[in-house]
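Quick start: load a record and inspect it. Here is Nucleolar protein 10:
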Amino acid sequence: MQVSSLNEVKIYSLSAGRSLPEWLSDRKKRALQKKDVDIRRRIELIQDFEMPTVSTKIKVSRDGQYIMAVGTYKPRVRCFDTYQLSQKFERCLDSEVVTFEILSDDYSKIVFLQCGRFVEFHSQHGHYYRTRIPKFGRDFSYHYPSCDLYFVGASSEVYRLNLDQGRFLNSLQTEASESNVCDINPVHFLFAMGTAEGKVECWDPRTRNRVGLLDCALSSVTADTEIEGLPSISALKFDGALNMAVGTSTGQVLLYDLRSSNPLIVKDHHYGLPIKSIQFQHQLDLIISADSRIIKMWNKDTGKIFTSMEPEHDINDVCLYPNSGMLMTANEAPKMNIYYIPVLGPAPKWCSFLDNLTEELEENPDSTVYDDYKFVTRKDLENLGLAHLIGSSLLRAYMHGFFMDIRLYHKAKMMANPFAYEEYRREKIRQKIEETRAQRVQLKKLPKVNKELALKLIEEEGEEQQISKKRKQKNLPSLLKDDRFKVMFENPDFQVDEQSEEFRLLNPLVSKISEKRKRKLKILEELEAQGQEEEEEPEGKASDAESSESSDDEKGWVEEVRKQRKLLRQEEKLKRQERLKEDQQTLLKPQFFEIKEGEEFRSFKDSAKKQKLMKRSLEDRLKLEEKLGTLNVSDTTVGSKQATFKLKKSEQQRKQQEAEKRHRQERKSLRRPASHLKSRRGRGRLFH
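Running the structure step on this input writes:
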């Protein structure tokens, strides 16, 4: 049993199995069945469910017990009994069957439309009656209330044959040159026929008048379809009282409501092949349409594809078993396909074991054409040294190569390449090594300059990636890959000095973290030196201990700052002591100073005072000169004038002085003599 899946819909092919070449004799086939377990175990749901060459039409009786199929060659009809899971009977015919209809609930009344304009009636015992219509027929429908057969074909007329009276009635004259298909509505018995001009004519059998005309060819042309010729109607099917599906020769399916001339939905198969069959699946509201290449199942409301099947051989007809998930096809091949789709419905009663069987099956697609034979080309034979076998019975010519026994192929391959197993073993070992290497931690190459900073950026980048994955955000670009900061990791002038005062004060907690990073750097350097490609974690505390340690570091941030400051003071003190030692060791040499013109040398102290005075603000210097009385106004000989300014106190200073004065007065008023306090204490004790 072959299992396929499309859109999560499992399709079980019950007719698929281990194929045997057609050129094998029946005796060899039976011998293979005895020897091979897989051939014996293949599922044959209905025994000999096939035709000699090709099957053209397949139908199920209304009671569901009989499946009937017609095919060639020679033209014949086969009836299969589902209760016995075998063939009921087989009848050969004089000419090929175009289509047929089961008139009764079982196989007792059947009508065949044949190629030579013949209409043949069969009863339960066999052939019953044969008649002929004026033109070649293509399809027919049975009108149950009046017992009329309506034949359409290569004529503008619709021929009527009454089975109750046993004679032809007046035909219906249509506007079409030819008609391809027809169907009768099962509810109100409206007769519809599809013409070669792409139109659908609807007739009322009671009045024999045309009541409607649909131009499907014009409606099937959409913006994205390419049509070479005029589409004709190739399939027609009613659904209930109001819906009708129409298939065209260009591969479109149109769904109509009979109350409207515009289609509800247009579905294109995109193969350009005529639609062969249309079926309705009511449980899931699906339409099953098929051309010669593909079977598509799609929703009739939205047009969305449910699933599809592509058999190996061209499709001639599709039949859906009523109220189940079983689908049967007539193909351009001897074997008729049976598919079971559990989603569409349960298995029929006569094969209810399929429900249990399909639950246990697993999907094992087999790509080999013939399991006991190997297909080889001429080049393969030359490589194996078997080119001399061409033309012998050991090779069977097929297409561009040959079929040969699989056992002979394996023996020749072993002789041509005896070390094939060793090569295979080596390749498998290499694949296993590659898999283990892929699981290792990849070593990241660090730059020559600022290695610790690069390692820090890599760690932060990894944390940011994890956060962005959780929040579904885009990752920010890394500084290591940015060209603007490339020089920082290449030029030694940009090396970060971790011993500088600024760095240590700005990063008080960097000491412990840098120690971990240095350990990691040391390990990376060792791995680089050894040429290994794995990065081991440094031995130390676990991740939980590290997280608790980082939290303790955050709590003791102030202590770390104090420690850093204390260390800096100690270093400064050591530097001062070193300077003093150097000064003591050096010999003092006399220094000479030059006095500017117009200046009078008094002492070194005056120059020192002057330097201190210059460091003060202008206001302080003017106050000092005012106290000393050096600030005055005098006229010069040139006519210039030197003015002396008295600085006024600012409003803020004045208010501050007044407030201080009031405060002093209040303190004086509140002050008491010590004797007054002693007398009060004595009184308190007396009254107490």
